[in-house]
Amino acid sequence: MNKITCIAIDDEPLALGLIVSHIKKTPFLELLAEFDNPIDASEFLQDNKVELIFLDIKMPDLTGVEFARTLNEDCKVIFTTAYDKYAVEGFQLHALDYLLKPISYEVFANSLKHAKQYFDLLKYGSANKQIQADENYLFVKADYQIHRIEISEILYFEGLKDYVKLYTESSLKPVVFHATMKSIEEKLSADKFMRIHRSFIVSLNKVKTIERDRILFGETRIPISKQYKPLFDEFIKKKFL
């Protein structure tokens, strides 16, 4: 089993001991070290590859949030804190999760289940991290969790600057996550999805009704822009009886 290498940082001995105990109970985690301050941890990181850090936020000298800003993208963080007021900052730093103390093993294990899915995707996904045409699901990170989305459930994607809304058949609310439409388009199979507008990518299997230059998904009307209309028309032409 390929284990996720990790360290734990907390200036409170009891809290640190609890996290260390949880880590040791989790088979796919490998605890490399534990620290009561981020300064010592920073020195350790210079010579050791660490994939995941369990990081307290409110610490003297250097806070967990300040320390997290110094990390490279390959090192992910799960914040552990007694204060929920830092949640927004944690989200901005793209932490894998944000756990409020006292942390039960049940809560810890549920968080690590999603974290493992994330690392498995990195380790066992394709070399360019794109979704292959024969894949039947994808993962997106939203609301401090990693969500598995079945391809067959997807209706369409809507772009909003640096964020994307993903709409599915099984939920009234979209999944909102940090990405660009260009990156989404590159990761989707071209025979299953098509960009029809600067702000929309649709699942071709879910296109059932077309009204002039709009696709209808229930009461929602998705515009087909002039830029993408020729390609979409070609798709329709091939399917026409």
Question: Can you walk through the features of this model?
Answer:
This protein is α/β, with parallel strands linked by helices and 241 residues long. The protein folds into 2 domains: 4-124, 3-Layer(aba) Sandwich (Rossmann fold); 137-239, LytTr DNA-binding domain (OB fold (Dihydrolipoamide Acetyltransferase, E2P), Beta Barrel), CATH 2.40.50. The protein has 7 helices and 15 strands. It has helices at residues 13-25, 38-47, 64-68, 87-92, 105-124, 181-187, 229-239; strands at residues 4-9, 29-35, 52-56, 76-81, 97-100, 137-142, 145-150, 154-160, 163-168, 175-178, 193-197, 200-203, 209-211, 214-217, 220-223. The strands form 4 sheets. A 5-stranded parallel beta sheet has the order 2-1-3-4-5. A 5-stranded antiparallel beta sheet has the order 10-9-8-12-11. The radius of gyration is 21 Å and the shape is elongated. Residues 125-134 have low confidence and may be disordered.
